[in-house]
Design a protein that fits this description.
Helix content is 31%, strand content 28%. The chain has 221 residues and is an alpha+beta fold. Helix 3 packs antiparallel against helix 4.
């Protein structure tokens, strides 16, 4: 399958690091509330806080046993490789301040430090192991890994919001939070998630999960 064809395929799974720290959830809920107080019309573009995660990789998976077995093997191999890279150190990321992608996506930013370098190494491990199993990302080739927590996204709703006069996320809506620290989270596992919500948890459906820093421990849900 050509890389051009791969790019046209809509992803249905993604590899993620779930953010579960209540402090971060609460802080970013406050940010959303403040934005809504200034611009109620933007409410439908808000991302549900229950889904907070860092996306490592997006992909399209064929619904067959063979494809899923290769995915599980790639995830298990990621666990061993990442544990080796981390060398027993935790994957602890602090989120501070807000950033945006072309005023279309608003997100909380990770602090640039050694921990973030370990997170980037983790992403490299995932991509390498998936590539070894002939599983391709649906992202365009050469896309730089930019870890972030999305809290507001206009893209899918742009035509509808434009009718309400909202063409972009204006900086004045979130200016007071640009330098605020939202908290830190320790990522204890890597998840393979479906792009469908779990009705019970509000998070995404977890198809497979491997625990970090515990090479012999893995869980399937």
């Amino acid at each position: 399958m050509s890389s051009q064809h791969i790019k046209r395929i809509r992803p249905n799974y993604f590899v993620a690091l779930q953010v579960t720290n209540p402090q971060i959830h609460s802080a970013l809920s406050d940010v959303q509330a403040q934005i809504l107080a200034k611009c109620p019309e933007i409410e439908e573009a808000m991302v549900d806080i229950k889904t907070l995660h860092v996306t490592v990789m997006v992909l399209h998976v064929e619904k067959c046993e063979e494809s899923f077995n290769r995915l599980k093997m790639a995830m298990d191999n990621c666990q061993s490789r990442i544990d080796q890279e981390l060398g027993g150190q935790s994957l602890e990321i602090t989120f501070k301040g807000l950033g945006h992608f072309k005023h279309n996506v608003l997100f909380a930013s990770p602090v640039e430090n050694e921990n973030l370098l370990r997170l980037r190494k983790t992403a490299e491990c995932v991509n390498a192991e998936f590539k070894a199993q002939n599983i391709s990302s649906t992202d365009r080739d050469g896309k730089v890994f930019r870890p972030h927590l999305t809290i507001l996204k206009l893209s899918d709703l742009s035509p509808k919001l434009r009718k309400k006069g909202i063409k972009r996320i204006e900086p004045e809506l979130y200016a007071e939070f640009v330098g605020v620290e939202f908290g830190e989270d320790v990522f204890k596992s890597i998840q393979l998630c479906e792009m469908k919500r779990d009705e019970e948890t509000g998070y995404y459906r977890i198809a497979y999960e491997v625990t970090l820093n515990k090479t012999n421990e893995k869980s399937k849900r």
